[in-house]
Amino acid sequence: MIRPMRPEDWKAVSKIYKEGIDTEHATFQTDCPPYSAWDASHIKECRLVVLDGARIAGWAVLSRVNMRWCYRGVAEVSIYVGEEFRGKGFGYHLLSALCREAEQAGYWTLQSTVLQDNEASRRLHTKCGFRLVGRRERIARDCHGRWLDTYLMERRCPADEPPGYNRL
Fold first, then answer.
1. Which structural domain, as residue segments, surrounds residue 148?
2. What is the spatial distance between Cα 154 and Cα 156, in angstroms, rounded to a whole number?
3. Where is the N-acetyltransferase domain (predicted)?
């Protein structure tokens, strides 16, 4: 089951986020921020969790790419699946639901930055209609000093004006 994320989900959401940080394949973040900082940096709508029974198996949210008005329909995806739930289809269902919800909210472009060593994430995004639009070589160093590339993946809404376009 997929449902909107609630503030009281933060304990489970932050645990899954920390698991992603620990892989060193999901994000350049090295620490999980407090809820107030995390909440302020993500769009309030289009926050989803996927459940395995009563347990949160993963989460997905959007962030603004640029605060300028002309980019109001462009958002960046963050998606994380808990370690014990990976490879079971939760990511696909969660990202598909996030894409549908984002279109209903008026977003016309979703993008995701995928670290070079995260092949599973690239496959997931491709399966959900994202395409590779660029590779940023040696864009950042990991915590061991190794240069890393990132891949920019993008999904465009099929309609020029998604259903919720006038609400943005």
1. 2-167
2. 7
3. 1-158
